[in-house]
Amino acid sequence: MSHRILLAAGVVALALHASASHAQVESGPVAGAKLAALKVTAATGEFTGEEIDYAEKRKDKPTIYVFVQAASFDRPMARYLRTLDAAVKKAGGDAQVVAVWLTDDAEKAKEYLPRAQMSIKLELTALTVYAGDKSGPENWGINDRASLTTVVASGETCAARFGYISLNETDVPDVEKALKEVLEKAEKKAD
CB neighbours of 51 closer than 8 A, spacing ≥ 6? Predict the structure, then answer.
C-alpha cells in the first residue's frame, strides 16, 4: 500500500513539474543581443500621443519592455504589471517599464490604455501600442504563443527575457532579480 502512495505522489510531482515547464516559452531577444528599433505610439507616459522609437529613447538607460498580447490581457497580468512597476520604483535609478500592446485594433488600444493606467495605478510604466503584426516588432523575437513577454535591457542590450503563457504577480521576482543585476553592473561601470 505504501508503494502505491509513493508512486502516486511521484506521478503527481512529475505532472506538476511538467506543467510548470510548459508555463514559459522562449520569447524575446536572446541575452546579449542588441535591441532592434521599437516604433510604437505612446498612450501614456512622457511621450503620450507621439509615435516614437522607444528603444532609441531609452538606449542608455535600464528598461524593462513588456509585450502584451492584448487579446490575452486579464487581471493576473494587470497585477503583474502593477507589481513590476512597484519593483522598478523600489529599485530606483533611471529604470522604467515600457509595456507594448500587440493588437489587431491599435485605435481601440490607444483609447483603452489611459483608462487601464488609471485603474492599475502605474507610476513608472509607459503604456504603448504597436500598430504592426501581433507577433511584435521585427527582430524582437516575440513568440505569439506567449501571452506576455518581458525583456530586461541594459541600455541597448538584452540582459534577460521571460516568455509566459500564463502569469501573475508571483512571476515578478525573477524579473526584479535581472533588473538588480543590470543596475549593479551599471553602478560598477560608473565607478
Answer: 39, 40, 41, 42
